[in-house]
Amino acid sequence: MNPDTTSSDKTSPPAIVLSIAGSDCSGGAGIQADLKTFAYFQTYGLTAVTSIVAEAPGKVVSIEAVSAESLQAQLQILNDSYQIQAIKTGMLANAELCKVVANFLEDLSTSDNVIPIVVDPVLISSSGKTLLDPDALALYRQRLLPLATLATPNLDEAATLLDLPPITSHEEMDQAVRKFTGKYQCMTLLKGGHLDGSDATDVLWDGNSIQDFSEPRIRNKTPHGTGCTYSAAIAALLAHDYTLPEAISEAKEYISIAIEQSSQLSDNGFKVDTLNHFPVGQNSDSAL
Ligand code: PXL
After folding, report:
1. pLDDT tens-digit readout, 139-182
2. Domains of the chain
3. Which tens digits make up the pLDDT trace of 73-122?
């Protein structure tokens, strides 16, 4: 990110980005990942917490959703107090909280000010734990995805939301990403990180054209929180007025080096890969 091209020089206030997501106490995913990513991209991060997840890499031991009233109060005071320039949603936990978020985003979309909304439809943790009650899927289908500027499903999430069998090739990704946009009326970035191949390739369909975003696959590192971090980076860059392809391209490069520079932190005697949200050496245009 080039400082000359962003609104966050030393004299102007930083762009403000809101994450509506769960808390990952281990700091790799969720609002913790989002806040670090927002800071990396020189934005000011706000959070509306949907649930408290007790976890460490590879294991989720408890999930406690907040009340609808609590989430509503967080969203209300943030929206009353700040000029929010982009929003991302992550883990929304259950149908009641999805309704609160959908109502909030609907109210925003009727105002004059168009705020980019990145919806990361978090369904399952990388360790396999359900992070969204199954009856809340209907809220994503009917209300949340149609409000998104960009949806960022991974292959499993896209297959679930499209009622398709597993997506197993780049050709199937090309078809699925078009179907997703057709069905939910939002631009779609389908993340292909779980396919094989020397590159990790994501596909953007904006309703008119298709574009691939590729970075070399990093095989020996498996940190959690990559999806959260990627969508947070896209939201931060949209708050800086990057175009969608520019934001995705830079966010993709960021997540790739954040994975590459994962550090091995100790989890009760085991070394686990932990995403580095402040990697060094992003291309020469980078501010950091
Ligand atoms: O990576 C998905 C995810 C999202 N949000 C929260 C999480 C996780 C994964 O564990 O804890 C809060």
Report:
1. 999 999 999 999 999 999 999 999 999 999 999 999 999 999 99
2. 14-282 (3.40.1190.20)
3. 999 999 999 999 999 999 999 999 999 999 999 999 887 779 999 999 99
> Tokens in use for 240?
């800086």
d(CA 206, CA 109): 19
String of DSSP letters for 173-229? HHHHHHHHHHHH-SEEEEE-TTS-SSEEEEEEE-SS-EEEEEEE---S---S-HHHH
C-alpha closest to that of 37 among 247, 265, 228: 228
d(CA 228, CA 208) in angstroms, rounded, equals 26
Q: Quote the tokens at residue 146.
A: 């149609």
Whose C-alpha lies nearest to ligand 1, atom 10? 125
The alpha carbon of 11 and the centre of ligand 1 are apart by a number of angstroms equal to 35
Nearest-CA residue for atom 1 of ligand 1: 225
